[in-house]
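Bumping my old thread because nobody answered last time. Still need a sequence for this structure:
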């Protein structure tokens, strides 16, 4: 019995490439993008971002400029970490 299956292909490792975004989303960039989208839509950005972080409800963030999708890609604890880090870097006093 003959087979049309080529066994030589079994000797080679196949390579599977997953397309990765050009750059990984950074919490700082996302917060700034969302802030601008909220301002453009006439919302109070700080109140809306705080509402989202506390509740996890994406309805606080508009779809404008893809802001809602962007912020949902970042864990809320990472957003808090970014905000606290940024605040402390700007307000720490060297003694």
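Sorry it took so long. Here it is:
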């Amino acid at each position: 019995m003959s087979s049309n299956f080529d066994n030589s292909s079994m000797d080679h490792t196949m390579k599977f490439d997953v397309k990765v975004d050009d750059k990984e989303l950074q919490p700082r960039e996302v917060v700034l993008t969302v802030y601008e989208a909220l301002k453009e839509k006439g919302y109070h950005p700080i109140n809306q971002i705080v509402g989202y972080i506390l509740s996890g409800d994406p309805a606080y963030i508009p779809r404008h400029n893809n802001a809602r999708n962007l912020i949902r890609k970042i864990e809320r604890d990472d957003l808090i970490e970014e905000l606290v880090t940024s605040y402390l870097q700007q307000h720490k006093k060297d003694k």
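The chain has a mean pLDDT of 86. Let me know if any region looks off to you.
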